[in-house]
Structures are given as structure tokens and as C-alpha cells.
Amino acid sequence: MAAVDLRGLSKAFGLVKVLHDVSVDIGDGEFAVLLGPSGCGKTTLLRLIAGLETLSDGEIRIGDERIDQLQPGQRGIAMVFQSYALYPHMSVRANLAYGLKNIGTPANVIAQRIDQAATILEIEQLLDRKPHQLSGGQRQRVAIGRAITKSPKVFLFDEPLSNLDAALRARTRVEISKLHQQLGATMIFVTHDQVEAMTMASKIVVMNAGRVEQVGPPLEVYRHPATRFVAAFIGTPQMNFVPVNQTSENGGWLQATLKDGARLDTRIATSAGHASPVELGFRPDEVAVDPDGALKIEVEVVERLGDRTLVYAHLSDGTPIIYQDHSDSQVQRGDRVGLRPHLHKLIGFDGSGKALHPELAA
Amino acid sequence: MAKLDPQEPVFSRLSYWLVIALSLCWLIPLFWVLGLSFKPNEELSYGLGTVFRAPYTLDNYSDLIRSSQLGRWILNSVVVSIIQTVLVLIICSIAGYGFARLEFPGRRALFVFVLIGLAIPRQAIIIPLHAMFVDLDLHNTYTGLILPHLGTPFGVFLMASYFRALPRELEEAAALDNASRWKIFLTIALPLSVPAQITLAIFTFLDAWNDYLWPLISATRPEMYTLTIGLAATQTNFDQSEGIGYLMAQAVFAGLPMLILYLIFQKYVLRAVAGAGGR
Amino acid sequence: MTTLVGVDAARGRRAARAGWWSRWAGLAFVAPFLVLYLWLMIYPLVSGVIMSFQYKDLLSGTSEFVGFWNYEDLSIDPIFIGSIFNTLRFVILTVPAFVVLGLLIALALNRPTRGAAIMRTLFFGPHVLSVTVVTLIWKTVYLPNVGMIDAGSTALGLGPLSILLNPDWALAAVALVTVWWSIGLPMMLFLAALQQVPQDIYEAARLDSASPLRILWTITIPSISKMIVLVAVIEVVLQFQVFGQVNLLTGGGPNNTTRSMVMFIYQAGFQQWQAGYAAAASQILFAIMLVAAGLQFWVSRKPAES
Ligand SMILES: Nc1ncnc2c1ncn2[C@@H]1O[C@H](COP(=O)(O)OP(=O)(O)O)[C@@H](O)[C@H]1O
Ligand SMILES: [Mg+2]
Q1: What ipTM does this complex have?
Q2: Which InterPro entries has this protein been placed in (chain B) (predicted)?
């Protein structure tokens, strides 16, 4: 079993604390994605798991074994670095063999492992080249191949797609997903790209400023963001946030009054006893154009994407609003439009950023 | 290739031709000596101007090979220079890696302590060093000629700054590949530091081959002379010596191999010198 | 899925040991060098200082503590004082030549042509020769009456100059040999610095129709000012240690006008066997060099501060 259990991890570089009490459970065979903006501590967390940095506090288990005191090579993990870190003076074959040789694997087993990995990744014809003779995509494959040959319990990837062009990135995404199914190993994948996270993950760990904001499957993180940070970070275009001036009750549900006096009904229960929201959020596609809608906006920019139209607008108090319209929308710059957010999709956020979710529609 | 850009300012072109003229001053002494080495000694005693006319002879070179200890001195120089270069490369690479990449108590302070050594000129310690080697009975031995250079910090400094510039991820990848510290050093860091090794090898070899003061003090028996010292001994009585032609043949014999080596490796030598200045 | 890295009971202990080991492994890497450094640099440095307070005759083997006696003696030894001034004169003769000539050659040869490459090789060439080969070569140039220079001056009707025997000229002659021998080092250092100057600055200056001399003065020189100082420091330190050339070309003569400090130390230590006296002279050389280097660094730092 290769479940990865991170318990209360903290890391400080000198006096600067970069990870605060991170706890995550990653099941055996799961594809977990660490997602967060640049500098939030994703790489540091991955390096702690790999043993390249020492923990300030907490413990790490793989399966039943506590590994945070072991040397990096003894933890049963393989890591694909952002820069690939292929040994420049060794052939691809030697790169793949290095780790196995170091633990005294017999030559025939090494050859067999390399063949297997090369077949899976279709790099058979590259085995005798040096890294500098490879393209970026090929290097990336070799780096993954070096991980595969070791048959690790856990794979760690640190933004492995960030050095590839857009087309290759999309293709490699699919291939890594396939590889995950094929090998059935636990994988932990770091990225700041939410598309990668949404498409590949079985579990997303959203991080912000050294803390875990939310852990969950992609759709849950998308639909039920736990915090304003998660709501804003995931989804393009971004979720809209409307400041709330005052709240009241309307038939057991919360009703919000905006700055311009407009009232918005929600399906957020008032009985739940939580703090009242200071903002309401809704995604650009969770809104209907309706002259009687509560939100009165003025259109600034219209982006016609072919299959749909994105409209950039603002409320009278200047709050920016983005919404999605159908592809033959006639809306134009300067138009005044009424919007009605879907009742069951309006999410509230309290002063601390915590999300207040609506009751699900019956 | 040597064609000049017609757009080029007169000033720049002028300086180029001036330097070409100057380069002749660098070349003339070399050819002058080469010419003299092929002249019979008796004729040169009438004036060195006779170098411009026949007869020429190879006698000086055959005398040299037959009678002098030049062969022995060259052997000494080769042995001392090569062993010294190899040892300096090994010691400085290991120590440089330790200072650059390994954590241990007192590392920073020790490195500063070693850097201070860059400011100690060899002349300042040569008297006590001589006394030390007398006590250890190391004079007139290869060990005695080689040892004093093994404590100089330049190589450590050079290698440490090179190792520091290598991407750390390569070594981390190797650690994940179950390589020990020593193995990472041997199989990853060391092969990648070849350019710095070449630089250090060139400096060390030149330094060893051309060293004058220490061998002058340490090697007092002619059979232990290095080439540099051997040639010094023969020229002290320049006027009464075996003859200028013979001396010049010695100069050519001693200098030409270095010049040929230099021409072969000039790319590396010049790059090493230019690179070392950048640090 | 097979696991290469199996769990075993010894693992924990091994890891613990590895942790301890890695803490001290670094010291094991630097230890061999440190031992040599302490033994062959630091210990002699310290014992040299101690020796400078002793009367130590290497021939008779006697030694006794004499306080500042050696230093007092040195301060009134005209040959030693002379050697300081000779060395200073030598530094003043050579260092500006290295800086100016090295820079001029580098400026002229800073172009990607084959001719420039050949001349770079040529100017650096003598640097690989040992001092004894260099002095052999130049002795035949300076040789009284029959040498290249005297032959020329005689032909011009000036008669033999016998430069190395002339107290006014001998040191300059040695300086010339030194420049010939090692102009390659400053040239290469300046070339390396010139390569670092971004080309677009020059293009911008040319678009501003600056004259070549103005570009040299206002752009090139300021861009490499750091290297100019560095070269000056390196050369001051190197030329303060001048020994081989004077020992072989003039032996300190004529009339002690070319005796350098290192030569004084050498002769005191290894011809008169006065180790304490020589050690004291070494300390003074060391101190002067430290001051010279420190002064240069101070000068080079100043513009950055203001
Ligand atoms: N070795 C280090 N020393 C000091 N600070 C570091 C070190 N490594 C990372 N940090 C800091 O820790 C924070 C998190 O870095 P990192 O884990 O690389 O973020 P991410 O991978 O999410 O972009 C950053 O603020 C970074 O500056
Ligand atoms: Mg990162």
C-alpha cells in the first residue's frame, strides 16, 4: 500500500515560515494535484516528501511506514523535476539505469526495466543519445522514464509541463493520465495551472500562502469552493464577486441588499447560524440576461469567441462583472444590461473568506 | 578574414596596425634565439650579427643531447609538474565540493579562513618552509619539490565557485537515485566540472613547470634540478660558458616544447586565463 | 507493483547513522586540504613571524630570541632600504605599462578576425616560458658589445650601451623583459572584460554620433573600470615579488640598483644563512603587499560609495 499521509507539516527557512501545519491524506493509487499560485509552497511541500528538505515539524507516512527520517533514496519515491534534471554527461540509457545501478540491481533486470519504460514512453530510438540532443518534449519523457524504471511507490512531479509549448502540454497531460492508469501508482503532481489540475486530478489540494485551503475532487472544488480564495483561483474566467451592504431574511433564506439598493435573493439558509456574507459570488455562466434582473451593468468589452460570447462589464459602483452570453448575442459596448444570477448558484462569503453555500436545488 | 571593415573608423584601424607592428617586437627575440642556436660557437664570438649568414650547424643540439643533464632535468620537471597537477586536482576538487555543497559545522568560518590564504605570498613563508623541510629531510626529493604547492587555496576557491554554479537539481536527482554523497561527487559533480579542472590543470602545470624560487632553494643537487633551475645554473657565468650558440640551443630545447604545448592547447589556456579573471 | 526499496528493520538505524555521517561528511571532504593548508601555509606563516624575532644562523644552527633586533637592523641596512626602493621603482615602471599597454593591445585585438586571434596567441606566448628561458633569450639581446641592442647602437654610431651594466638603465631593462614576458595576462583579462560590455551601448553611442575616442573614454573605459583596478592590483602584487629576472639578468647589480626585496630575502636566507633576518624582511614584504592590495581595493571601492 502506498497511501501518502502528511500530518501537520511545517517548514521554515530560517525565520521565514513557508508551510503552516499542512495535513493531507492521499489514497493509494490516487492522482493528487497540488494547486496554488506561484510561491505558495508547493515545491517545498514536494521536496519535503522527497526528503530534499528537512521538516520543521510534522510527519510523513507512506503506507504504514514513517519516512520523514529516511534518506531521499530510501523513501521509495521518484521525482520528475521542473528542469528535468537529466544528467547531461550520460546517455539516456545511462540516465535511466543510474538509480538501479546504485542499489545493485542485476544488469539483465536493469536492461529489462529500461526496455519496458522505453516502450511505454516510446523513447526506444533515443536511448543512446545525450540529453542535449533531445527536444524539450523528449527530455520530459526521459525524465518520466527515469522515474518509471525505479518502480517507485509514489511519483512526484514538479510542474513538469511548464517548459512545453501549449500543444505538447495538452498531449502530455493526456499521456500522464494514461500512464497513471497503466501503472496504478500514487502520483503527486504540482502545478499552478488549474486546467492541468481539473483535467488530471482525482484529488486537488488547493494551497495558498503555505496553507491548505481545500482538498477534494476537481468538481467539488469547482462547485463547492471552501473559501473565497479557492472560488477565485479556480475557473476561468474568474468568479464574480459582488459586495453586500446589508442582509435580511426572506422566507428562511438570506436576502442581500447591494450598495445600489438592489436586492438579491439566495438559497443560503439563515438558520445555519453562520456569519452573514459580505460578498456574493457567481460564475460567469451561472447567470441569465434579464431586463428585470437585480444586477444593472454597463458593458465595456465584448469578446466573441465563436461558440460563446464573453462580456466584460461593471456595476454602477464600479464592481467588475464578467458574464457569458450565447454566440449570437447582440450586446455592444455601452449597453446597459440586467442580469439575474441563478438562485441556486449564488455563494456567500463571510468576512474571513469562508464560503456559505446554497441548499441544493430540489 | 583579416580584411578590415571599410566603415571602421581610422582610429581603430590605426591602433590595429600599431599592434601588428608591436607584435614584431614580441616575435623578433624568439627568432633571434632560434637563429643563434644554429650557429657555431666560435663564429658567434666575433659578434652575434653573424647569425644572418651561413654557416649554420646542428652541433649545438648534438652537444646538448650528448653532454648535458638536460634530459634528467626535463624528466624531473615532467615528474614534478604532472604529479603536482594531479594531486592539486584531486585535493582541490574534493575540498572545493565540500565547501560548495556539503553542510557541516563551521563551514563558513573555515572557508573564510582558507580564503585568507590567497593573500599569503609564497615569498613570505619560504624561510620557515625551508627550515621545516630541512628537519623532515625533504630537500632534494620530488616530495620536497611538490609538497609546498599542495597547500595553496587557489584551486579550492576555483573549484568551489564552479561547483556552486552547477544546478543543484542534478545532485538532488542523484540523491533520489540512491547515490551516496561520495558517489554524487564522483559520478555527477566531478564529470560536470571538467572545464574547471582544465583551467586548474593549466594553471597548476604552468606554475609547477616555471617555478623558480622554491626549486632553487630546495633542489641543490644537479641531478634533482628542474629544467628551470638547471638552465639557471648554466647561465650564471654567461660570458665564460660553453658558448652562446650552445646556450641558445638549450633555450630552444627547453622553451619549444612548452610553446608547442601552448599552441596545441591555446584555446583552453586563453579561456582559462580569461575565465579566471572573471571571478 | 514491485518495490525495489523494501522495508527492513535495519533501515531506521542506517538512516540514523547516515544523518550523523552526513553532518560530518563535509568535514571529511575538506580535511585533506585543511591539513595541508595548516601544515604548509599557516604553520610556516606563524613560525616565520616567530623566526623574525630570533637570531637564527642556519649554518651554525644557533637560534635565540632577540626581540625587534632584526627589524631594527633592517631599518638601518642600506641594502635592504635600497631593495625596497628598487622594488617600488620596478612596480612603478611595470604596472602602468601592464595596464596601459595591455589595455591598448586588448582594444586593438578585440575583434573576431583570425589575425586578431593569431596576435592574441602571440602576445600571450612568452607567458608559458619559464623565467630562465626568458632571461636566456634577453641576455643575448642585452649582451654588451655583441648583443642585439649594442650591435644596433654601434651601427648607429652611439657605441655600445651595455644596458645591464648601466645603473641608470638596468632596472628599466629588466622591466622591459618583464613586460615582454607577461603582457599576455593583462591583455587576456582586459579582453575578457571587453567581451562583457553589451554591444548595444556602442551602437547607441554611435547613433548619438560620438567620436571613437569619446566612445573609448566615456563608454569603454568606465564599463571595464573594475577590471582595470583588478589588473592593477594583480600586477602590483605580482611585481612586488620580482625575483627570477633580476637574479638571472643582473644579480642585483650594477651597484645594487636592481636588487629586489625577494632577492634580498633569498640572499640573506640562503647565501648568508641568516634565517631570522630574512624572516623579518619577509614580514615587511608581506605587510607592504597587504597595504598595497588594501589600498587598491579601497581606491576601487570609493566611487561606488559616493
Ligand atoms: N531554500 C529556500 N530558502 C529560503 N526560502 C525559500 C527556499 N525555498 C523556497 N523558499 C521560499 O518559500 C516559498 C515557497 O516556495 P516554493 O515552494 O518554491 O513555491 P512554489 O513552488 O509554490 O512556487 C517562497 O516564498 C520561496 O521564496
Ligand atoms: Mg515551484
Answers
A1: 0.88
A2: MetI-like, MetI-like_sf
